[in-house]
Amino acid sequence: FKVTAPTETLNCFVNIARPFDVTIRGVNANTAGNYQFKYAIESGAGYITYRGAVVEQDALVMLSGSANELQFVGTEVGAANLVITIVNGSGEEKGFSLKCNVQETAFVFDVIPSAGSLSPDSMIDLAMSINEVNPSTYKTKYEVLPADQGTVAGSGSVIVNGTELANNTFVDTQSGQFTWKFMADELGPVKLKFTTENGFGVIAEKEISLQVSETPEYTFTAVSSGDTQANIDAVLGIDFNLNESSGTSTYTMTFTNTNTGSLAINGTPYEAGDQITITPGEFTGNYTGTEAGDHTLTFTVQNAFDPPLERTATVTFTYIDPNSNKPIITLGGDGENVQLCQGVAFVETVTAVDAQGNTIPTNEIVITGSVDETTPGSYGLTYNVSDSQGNAADEISRTVTVTALPTAIIGADLTSGQAPLEVTFNPTGSTAAAPATLVSVQYIFGDGTQSAVLDFPSNITHTYTTAERFTAQLIVTDSNGCINTQDIEIDAAQG
């Protein structure tokens, strides 16, 4: 006998029966009723049904004839691979593989009302959305659910494309986003259940609760609970009160701030722009300003009606920088780090002003420490001052580093001879105190002339044209800018 069955991969959907045909050819009429089948799932998950009954794996089931419809139900998304075996009355077996690509059938359904409360004869939007995984058809209905025991239910109707939709009646819808409306009628709570079913028979439901109330009226206040002025980072209190004079609703509050700080409502921190859920009655807040200046907080409250009824209140705090009254000390010259060459006098340059910008006499600045300009080393100085009100400045410090001078050694190939006398000078042997290095030399010849500043260790040749005794000088400069000199006598005799 021969078996004909699907060879291509079938598209299947989770928990949806996918039929496929199995045909047996060459069947002897006397043995037609003796054909059976069994199956095994090699990968994936699911089961086969035949003539409305679930068939267990590896169980032999009698077939009714040569043409048979079987159904595979995949229970997990993914590839399902099955081996199906046909067995005749003589025990001969013929098998074939069946492959199914099992796909998701579910979808996400949601209904979001534009407001939770509304007054009689007013209307709100119902934002509907169907987000599908695989394309399908959809139908949607709504039901009015009974009110809680002891509660008188409100009433209203659902409007679709300008027409009132009958309760518990399906209408065709589509995937994506669309809008229905709810029209309020009688006062009281209204519970609605929306049901959407796709073409695979998958159902999703969403319940919403609305409140049909009288047109509400309420007052809202926000006032300081104490001080309105404090130092930066101090906590100041706010008392809030929301009072409903008619109707009921839910409420949200936001706030803006003209400065920098943080707000906590009943212990929960919030940032400017956050949606804060509040309830009618009194509640408290704490504000902490982190910058000096005025902090104006504007609170805006809206109820849940459409359109919302809005109320605002403003609280202003003033924060002061406790350091703003301190005098300011300013170091002149090279500021906090001064470098001196050994032997150069240290000239103190420091000034101070009070918070109003008035100069504080220099002799009122207290300087601690001293500098010995003759001895290389590092010297620390501190500066303090107070204004006429006793406000003390922040102490500042300065480090003065006295560096050792370089050593200048002048050399000459001749120190005497007949004029004209040609002499070559050199700085060999000159050194700088580490970590400094020598950077330049200059020669003063003693006859009214001198060389340019030359890179160390440049030599130079000079001719003395007159008979005279001259004093030549070498000037060396190190990388700290420190200078030293050495002289040498040159005797040019009469020729």
UniProtKB/TrEMBL annotation:
Record InterPro entries: Cadherin-like_dom, Cry22Aa_Ig-like, Ig-like_fold, PKD/Chitinase_dom, PKD_dom, PKD_dom_sf, TraQ_sf
Domain PKD: 406-495
Cadherin domain ranges (all copies): 214-329
Highest taxon in the source lineage: Bacteria
Gene Ontology CC annotations of this record: membrane
One Gene Ontology biological process: homophilic cell adhesion via plasma membrane adhesion molecules
Example of a GO MF term: calcium ion binding
Protein name stated in the entry: DUF5011 domain-containing protein
Organism: Spongiivirga citrea
Source species taxonomy: Bacteria, Pseudomonadati, Bacteroidota, Flavobacteriia, Flavobacteriales
